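S.,

Sequence below, as promised.
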Amino acid sequence: MAIRTYLYFPGCKIPRFLPQYGRSTQAVMAQLGIALDETELNCCGYPVRHESFTAAMTAAARNLAIADAKGLPLMTPCKCCYGNLKHADYWMRLDSGLRRQVNATLAAEGLSWREDTPIHHLLTVLDADVGSRRLQMLISRPLTDLRVAAHYGCHALRPGKITQFDNPLSPTIFERLVAVTGATAVEWPLRLDCCGHPLWEKNNRFSTALMANKIVDARQSGAQVLTTACTYCQLQFDVVQAEQASASVDPLPAVLYTQLLGIAMGLPPEILGLDDNRIQWIPDTP
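The prediction came back faster than expected:
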């Protein structure tokens, strides 16, 4: 029996480009007794935010209105989606003109944006709603000897007054969740810097330079793997890193946090989609 149900928002990228993130999220949530309502939703609106702010807010608000109509909190594994949904929540509260315009559009479907629809990222669900005590009860294969670089990504952290994810200058949520698995979260100076993916296919040289600097920094800090909880960051550190790696460079494996947690819970690697990662990581567990 599910202890709680969330309206599940995978966003656009996960089903097409990163299905292992979706599968590992569903596997971990099932292990925790959490149900995911998979009602079809539209794009979060982020891709058009700098083209049409109103269109982006309307797209996000429609998803929130559906969550409100179903009486469910919304949960997404994508930090870009999380960020834009939080932007919509913030600006719809603040701007009465925007609120009237968006709700007039939504009214054609019998929907309406209202305050107080809970918006969660996957990590905040695990950290706050589930909690470390319950997570630790389900750890059967602790990753005791593994040193991990936790990569935060940008869109959930900033701007802090809008996203309210964690302290944007000194977050700790990801390190706490790494510790739950039995692994050690390393301290690395570039942990909060951009991965470079927003520049990919616009300025590939700069994009890969940002990524390479982070990989060097993580390695020098003792990391054996890097873990992400952001669709775009995982694509950068796994897919782009694999495509750009030369024969003389040993790539740093990038593992989704749900994959890391799932392995520590004793779930089979194939269920978590580890084989779908471009840079393979073989967990060293008993």
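The first strand starts at residue 4 and ends at 8.

Coffee later?
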